[in-house]
Amino acid sequence: MPSVAGVDVPNWCLAGAAVLTPAAIYAYLLRVSRQQREFFAETPQPKETSLIFGGLESADLVNNPEKGLAAMKQFYKELGNSWGIRLPKWLFPNTQFLFLTADPVIISEIMSKKDIFHSRPKGLAFDTTIPLGLLSLRAEGPHSRWALHRRLASPLFSDSFLLGYSEQVQEKAKLMQFILNERIKAAKAEAAECDLQHCLKLLTLDVIGSIGFGFNSKATMTYLPEDHPQALSEAEKTAELEFLQASEVMFFETHQRTTEPWMMRYLPHRFMRWRWAKGVMDKRINAVLVSGKESSSGAKLNMLKALKDAQEGGQKMSKAEVTDEILTLLAAGHETTGHTTSWALYEVARHPEVQAKMLAEVSTVDLETLPLTQVQSLLPYSWMTWQEALRLHPTVPFIPRQAEVDTTLGGKYNLTAGCVVSVSQFMLAVNEEMWGPDAASFVPERMEKGYPEMHLPFGFGGRTCIGKRLAYVEGVYLLAFLVKNFSSRIGDDAPVPSPRVTVTQSAAEGIHLMISSR
Ligand code: HEM
After folding, report:
1. Is any atom of ligand 1 closer than 6 Å to the C-beta of 395?
2. Are strands 407-409 and 486-489 parallel, antiparallel or unpaired?
3. Does ipTM surpass 0.90 in this model?
4. Which residues cross the membrane (predicted)?
């Protein structure tokens, strides 16, 4: 007689179990599916053929942004500014219902229902990759670890800290100036074509490396011409680019894993890449942590040191929490700012009148010594230019929230607890009712009044971006610095940047501009 867990079981029992188990699973799935159908019976649904992912694909935002945006507008026109779709539960275990909206009325309802829509969805890949950082921590009461982290990390973005980061940002900006000038010299022409998206991504990585954990990374140096006397050796280059690639894997590939069935995430080729990336990043942070030398870039202020020392009534972050928090700030805090700034420079290059106005403003300011805390007051037009670029090219195009309990939106969309609502910044940006008939044009002056309440490029509620102030001052400073030192225009053969949408929005082929020194 066969034995199961040490108990003898007759063969007929095993045969019965073999038949009954699949039958029970099938019956369970049928019941869940019937319950879902009943629940959503009253909820407006798009045609079954317009699955959200099918829809977004047909919008082709990646390969043909203009056509893509038009298709997306058409999509919204047919389905309304808000619509929902049932997703196959086996594929999205935590996302029973995805509701996409660009309707200001519904968005304000979501914002006002703070007790219901306060949290980003559970089960995102960051949960398994950086589980102890702000992007992942979920429970949100005042005594939760998330709330403690938020309180301990908030001072990192206060005036005194921004002031403390200023010198490091100025130093890196000067490094970028040197490298771009060397590229212009190497081109032996008045102007050189540069991929500003790539360059700013390297630069913002160096900035966050320095202010984040006192690491003097030199990723930007990889952008020197290959045969330059100061160009990095192949080994140094590999080490710098390894860090960049690791941060991309952490942020993008881990994010892509979320849209895959659970099992796929752990296929060796995916899992090993993440392990590798985490290893590269942990090694750098640990080198600083273990050596006790918080700063390899001089004794400057940095987030790691501040978080290690931060405490509240004797409560501190553990070493693992500090490491995950630093990884989170690195991942969330460099290319978001870099991409926005490169989109802004692209718009400046396309609009000579904006460039001239910015130049008039930046010429009167000594940027080499400008503290970050004075960026907004001394560079108001540059500020509006960066802000307008973030409107038209929202770096984080979707802001998702998971319903805590069953609820209804707009009086007709039924959502069960666990449903995900995603606010589409993309569509909000071209909403003519909100911005007027010139919504699709780049007009920095419209930012005199700032963003209306419903435009949320940094999210909303308690979960709003903690790094918003740093993003603004660093981004506007770098934009102003570039405009002051270089004139830029779109090259005749430059590819038209098309949005590549992952967790953030970038230009698929980079942002190539012809730049010359002023
Ligand atoms: C242009 C630049 C940036 C944009 C557009 C941006 C946008 C966002 C958005 C939309 C969210 C989600 C908010 C929500 O769910 O309501 C977020 C969260 C976050 N961001 Fe940013 N961000 C930027 C720069 C930064 C910087 C510079 C840092 C830090 C160095 C940072 C750190 C974070 C963190 C830690 C979170 C999670 C906050 C939490 O859940 O408590 N971000 N960001």
Report:
1. yes
2. unpaired
3. yes
4. 12-30
